[in-house]
Amino acid sequence: MTSRGKQRVMADRLGVHADAAEWCTIDKIPQPPADMLRAAGTPPLRPGRLRPLGMLGAVLAVPFMPLLMLLTLLSNVEEAVKRALATKEERERLRVKDEDDRRRDAAIAEQGLDRVFDGNWHSPAGQFLLRWYAHSPHHQRLVLATQDGIVLAAPPRRVTVGREKHMQIVARLSATEATLVDPFNGEFETRMVLIRFRDGSWLRVDTEEPRSDLHTYLLRQPLSDH
Q: Which residue has the higher pLDDT, 100 or 158?
């Protein structure tokens, strides 16, 4: 089944008509001020623990870690060999790519996008982030772009498999509250998408793959002044 087909199946399961959907994660949530945490009811700031079956799966995966490390090392060696044997044209393409990567990293740091949110806990983004794991302890969210706004879905508890089967809607943001934004409007290939609230505050979610279908959808939307 195509990615778009999977999106439709997931959206139909939730009873939502979505223009695009992607599974996303967020970075580590920083510690908020103690008084704000208490006022919010001391919500969890980390994903829930894995259930025993999930922990067993993680333990069983440990013996494969050396193999994964070896494959990573071989991949790095292969990349180094390719660079050493590259033609003049290939070296030029690699140089341009490296320069683009440096510009991307500099732009991310300059705009503060290496953080999970803009830093204002009093803003709508800060308040939404504060309750992120109160909505669901699962470490991922299915982010759906709809005509009416943004829908977030997740399993009611953390799972290792079957996330689509167990997911349910955990939050909705109307189009008047927030929009989804590619902060670089396709200039750079990244996994990041911003949930930008109307006051300008934002929080960052990361798709599983760069240039995801969610990014493609956002490129088709008119540029916003917000």
A: 158
Question: What would the pLDDT profile of 107-165 be if each residue is shown by its tens digit?
Answer: 899 999 999 999 999 999 999 999 999 999 999 999 999 999 999 999 999 998 889 99
Show the CA angle centred on residue 197, arms to residues 192 and 200, nearest 5°.
Answer: 90
Side chain identity at residue 26, one-letter code: I
Q: Regarding predicted confidence, which is higher, 89 or 173?
A: 173
Query: Is the C-alpha dihedral spanning 179, 203, 23, 16 positive or negative?
Result: negative
Q: What is the pTM of this model?
A: 0.79
Other CB atoms within 10 A of residue 201 CB: 23
Burial class (CB in 10 A: 0-12, 13-18, 19+), 122: exposed
Q: Is the dihedral of CA 162, 25, 195, 7 positive or negative?
A: negative
198, 176 contact by CB (below 8 A): yes
Rounded Cα distance between 109 and 102, Å, is: 11
| 33 vs 35: CA distance, rounded Å | 6
Q: Is 11 left (phi over 0), alpha (psi -120 to 50) or beta?
A: alpha
How many of the other CB atoms lie within 10 Å of CB of 219?
A: 11
